[in-house]
Design brief:
The chain is built from 4 helices and 11 strands, in the order αββββαββββαβββα. Strands 1, 2, 3, 4, 5, 6, 7 and 8 form an 8-stranded mixed beta sheet that branches. The chain is globular and about 65 Å long. It starts with a helix and ends with a helix.
Length: about 200
Amino acid sequence: MNIENIKNKIKDNKPYINGWEKMKRSSIIIPLVEINSEVCILFEVRAKKLSSQPGDICFPGGKIDDNETPKEAGLREMFEELGIKNIDIINELDTVVRYDGIIIHPYVGIIEDIREININESEVDHVFYVPLNYLIKHSPLEVDSKINVERTKDFPYDLIVNKENYKFRDAIYRSLFYKYENYNIWGITAEMLRNFLEKL
């Protein structure tokens, strides 16, 4: 390996998230709709029979398949969950990298006609709409939690300075909660929502 070899291998590299190959990747769309001349955000309530996060509030979206771009995955999931084909994607927001090894690509899109919505009841219980101005005016509840790392018995302390007394950094995980009527929008959905609202 010489300098020329290194240049040839690195020069066309497109930066992404270190270690992404071993992480789960998904894509979501924050859908905007106009109802009675007011911009609203559409949220889904996940079907209660789902094995993962039943009854939780989320945005349309899901896993990125191997042959898809994140945008293609978001559009496919939007169609599979809500039957929506006509959505105008404005842009991608900041990529989310979760502490548990999940990467999420959020997009913002405009649904042209909500009469197109045909809910897939195996995935979605129902949808509801929250006025954008309400979300801008109401700050979420914010709660910090400490993340504890439990190291295995065979962790090689002998390979690091100060061994078992090494001062590992603490990690804090923030949870947000937006309240609207009888709904609590929280977790990663609330994080992506805030990221969108902050850009406005």
